[in-house]
Amino acid sequence: xxxxxxxxxxxxxxMLQGVTKVAIVGCGNCAAACQTxxxxxxxxxxxxxxxxxxxxxxxxxxxxxxxxMLVRRDTKVLRDCGAEAVxxxxxxxxxxxxxxxxxxxxxxxxxxxxxxxxxxxxxFHEYCRMCGDCVLGDTGGICPVTQCAKGLVNGPCGGxxxxxxxVSPENDCAWIKIYQRLLLLGQEDKLLKPCRERxxxxxxxxxxxDLRGKKK
Length: 216
Hints:
alpha/beta, 4-stranded parallel beta sheet, 2 domains, 7 strands, Rossmann fold, 3-stranded antiparallel beta sheet
């Protein structure tokens, strides 16, 4: 799940300077789960903006704001609603997807934080950095790129203290966790093998995937 947090309202208002008529687009998936862009949050944003003199011309809640076809369908109502700008209450990808489909400025109401695990309602943990070069098969299913503050893929740095990270003492050392996990799985011999160097070529952006094959 893409985890988002609300921007300070004053930051959003700064972006909306000179605008009086807005539309609001939320997201029924990740942002709704993060309580940053569901139906309740859209209504709260509508009230806040109206209290500050804005006219909210329309609100839209696509099931998935990162799905281009759904957003194209659901934002049709915004094109003639009289809005001068759109407030996007989704992740950064969702805001850009809305911008791709409407000829209005789209301003983010949220900050996009990370791809995370949902522990329970309202509690999220960063688990994946979407680096494009997954090493989980070598590390017991624990990602050193994300779980280690230094992103080390070749073992611990030696700076841990009492099992805690020297950079972020509230976090457990990722490589101690990896060792304990591999020990549990009976795969500790993997630690004796040199870890392959991470391929940074996979970090070239923007990336694209076409499951239909190459276009001709």
